[in-house]
Amino acid sequence: MTRIRCAIVVALVLSFPDAAAAGERLKVEWSAAWDQARSPTVHIFEEGLDDTGYHEGSCTAQPCRTPQGFRWEGTNPNAAGDFKVIALVEDAAPLGRPFCFEVRHAYAGSPFPIPVQVTVTTTAPNGSTRTAQRTLDVGQRMPRECSPVEAAVSAPPDPGPQPWFDDAVREVQSRGGRCTETSEAVQPVLETPYTLRYRECVRAVPKESGLVREGCTSSVSQGDQRGDAWSYGCDVLAAPGTERRPNPATWVCQRYHLWEHGDTVRRRPNWYATATKIFPAGAWRTLAGCLTPRAAGTARSQGVQTAGRRGFTVPVACSVACTVELQVVRGKAVLARGARRLPANRRATVRARFSPTGKRALQGAQRLTVRLVARAGRRRGRAEDTVHISGSRISAPTLDVLLRR
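Request: output the structure for the sequence above.
Response:
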């Protein structure tokens, strides 16, 4: 594979000859050794809103968004048609609008290492100027900046770890989770350095849960000229089991409280249990309430299985010790049937063997019904779905059975 390396130089100039004068508010000039390189993307944010303005390429492949009271101007296209000079011009009253912006590398996800050299110059309404340079690698972006600096939304004070956060940390630690704390110096493009404190209390969970890990994270900035940001968030699984014996009936309890630059305070005031195929979503005041078992048990089957001469086989797991019966039905006739006793949270294969008449009825069939019946003491449940037969293979559906009294 041929690797293409080119340097892209981006210059941003925000100018305010006087607060009441219309004209160019933002200019992006760029160049590259490769004449078909894509231009960087420019994003405009006003009053904490996301992407009130957006410019990419030549604005022909997809329309660019223009913030109210402004217009985009582009000149000097390259071989790919992307403008090498991009300007945001203010042309409607009231003039001197404050706004924030980001410049992002155009090659997010590209395998080509194309570094972007960025030069940023801003001029505030009072005439003061700021200039800085930065190199952006693939997938990176400049920190969001504002003109003037005061346009950034003021940060509310850091509330510190709340009792709900501490409860979740203790729960994760009781499951073997570990906590780490780091502190690093951050150098923004146009501002003075500030400190970022990061805390993480996490542990690995079974892949079948849909998560890589569970736990809590927090980050707090100190000394940021734009205003300090902070975030606290937790995702805790209800009885996830282990990698060898995952619990198919688990769900996620989530809670967070955060503030980020250009955003408003966002919070989930109660513990929120995510919806699953079996359970609806719900909210609880305490983590213990959210983690409380929501059903007597569940059984689940899934996977593409073989339809052999002797019958069908389907992998099944129960969240509690149970007996599972597998039935294969065509119309009202049961063609195959089989049952197996399963321990909790252990996947095993259940085989439904054909009856003599079932083998004959199977011939020529393209669609059948697979039914799963689970029992655990007085609790029982059932689920069924249609499967499609192709040769000796069947597409077995995922069946979730809720065990009820």
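Confidence is low (pLDDT under 50) at residues 1-21.
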